[in-house]
Amino acid sequence: MEKSFKEQDPNDSDWGNPPSPDTPENRRKAFRAQLIIGIVSLIGIALPGVMFWLFRG
After folding, report:
1. How far apart are CA 54 and CA 57, in angstroms?
2. More confident of the two residues 2 and 25
3. Do the Cβ atoms of 51 and 57 come closer than 8 Å?
């Protein structure tokens, strides 16, 4: 069976986009994103327990 696509050589130096520069604006954006992820995680963890406690029986 013959391959119909051209294989690429692996490039170890190609890791995607470079990180964004460390500026105060980017720090605020990162902190806000981490805060939102944390709140959503806490809700996702606590909600089943609260629902079980309220609706048991």
Report:
1. 9
2. 25
3. no
Q: Which two tokens stand for residue 54?
A: 């309220």
pTM: 0.60
| Alpha-carbon gap, residue 56 to 51, rounded angstroms | 8
DSSP annotation string for 1-57: ----SPPPPP-TT--SSPPPP--HHHHHHHHHHHHHHHHHHHHHHHHHHHHHHHH--
Which of 15, 16, 32 lies closest to 24 in space, CA to CA?
32
